[in-house]
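Supplementary Data S3. Sequence and structure tokens for construct A.
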Amino acid sequence: MNIDSFNLAAIDVGSNAARLLIKHINVDDNGQTEATKLLFLRIPLRLGMDVFANGRISEEREREFIATMKAYRQLMKVYSVNSYRACATSAMRDAKNGKAIINKIKDKAHIKLDIITGSEESKIIYDNHLSNISSEGCYLYVDVGGGSTELSFICDGERIYSHSFNIGTIRLLKEKVKREDILKMKSEINRITLGREDIKIIGSGGNINKLFRLASKKSSLSYLPVETLQEEYNTLSRLSVEERMAVYGLKPDRADVIVPAAEIFLHIAASSHAKEILVPNLGLADGIINEMMRKKL
């Protein structure tokens, strides 16, 4: 393999969807790297719908899961991927049959899938996106998924807090988030941000990306004002899932989770007194590839 040019892939198996990201990495004579996206594919497996309701993944969804991993394996061959890493998060952490399914995926799809902890998930997301965070000021890095919310607090370039909360969009839809869980998260945010001013949120995840794009159609702002997010939440929450699909062109697996996602971000904004959300459109898969690239080079 030519170290100056290679392809890397990341598989992110979340509670709502499984994503495959493939990037081509080129290294110039000065050691500078350039990453070009070759493929991004998202399959709405919705593992959390089973796990957060019944504690395990159903046989039907297991078949879909294995079929998706087989397809991803073939796509990695087509794109001549040199190295990959596959990670599973909240739903697979909670699934009683998670380890058994991972063994089946290894045998049938020839993919090694790692179930990562909430703290490792938060670390991958944050550590590999440092370039989006100024060395001055305070930021809350927030990734809202189907099963959990990863939160890191950074001030003047130093991470001073990181935690994974079992509060996610599908958990909320399934009414598996207790009121005290929300209150605990808000209390923690109040505690760590006490005395800090002008805190900005950096939002990660498919839902905040979509909310930002919806807002961008009305404004050319480079960030999402919390006030605008509140207006979007008020509008979307009054509509049924079918109406959100018809009015905004949302896919079914986005139309139902976008409202609880907005709700989570609004809780965090209120607790931190943040007024705006920066949306760099980066997620766990990007972080996995950045981590692999750093180790390889």
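Construct B, processed identically:
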Amino acid sequence: MKKYLAILGLVFVTVVWGGGFVASDMALGSLTPFQIMIIRFGIGTVLMGLISYRHLKGITGGELCAGILLGFALFMGFACQIVGLQYTTPSKNAFLTATNVVMVPFIAFVIYKKKVSKRGIIGAFMAIIGVGILSLDRNLSFGFGDALTLVCAVGFAFQIFLTGEFVSKYRATVLNFIQMATSFVLSAVILIVLGQWNISATTQGWLSVLYLGVVSTTLTYLLQTSCQKYVDETKAAIILSMESVFGTLFSIMILHETVTAKMMVGCILIFAAVILANSAPEETAQTDAVCE
């Protein structure tokens, strides 16, 4: 029962992240990318601090190490995605970001020699094909922005993998507080370097970034961490690829994008990948601790 509730929880995360595409688009109308990052992670740090304050006095060295690694991976994912978006198209940015789906099982194999079921591998590639159909246009050239977006995918892949590694050992609330705080500090450093402290957002911009900070960051990453106790990292990555499906649906409903046959085929493939991957048996492996 816990496994199926965890799967539903991860699906809910993708719904919220799908709405985050629209919120980010609205926020970018009056805020720079790194201003959005420092506000969303600042809100996340404060809220996670309030949620976990009773546990913070007992933070162990292992939890601190794990949270910093998660925060660095999360920051790398968001930072490279945002910068890469300035040099490539949104569709290619979305597709290349989603390649983290196929990176996660290979990271698990390389680091822990953890075998992945055939259904898991097939599901991962089906998800990538679905995202590609959903996102890509005829322009398949590869440039600097595309390379940065691939680095972003590596960051998100490690964030998903490390979450699965650490969540069974450490407290989810503490991990998320340190993760958010690390991402906030790194965002602040970049903002200082760029000299973008003068924040002047519209009402729409503030409402959008409030959604990103409270719902799309604090709530979802706490839920993701808790749910990955019961869903292995490969299946979690495939489920989280549904973010692109809900991002498309919200773009149609809110931004009034036109529905196409290509969108429908891509969405169906991703849904099929999630069902296939989650019908596969769980794979286990003996692992050595990364942080103690």
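The chain has a mean pLDDT of 82. The radius of gyration is 18 Å.
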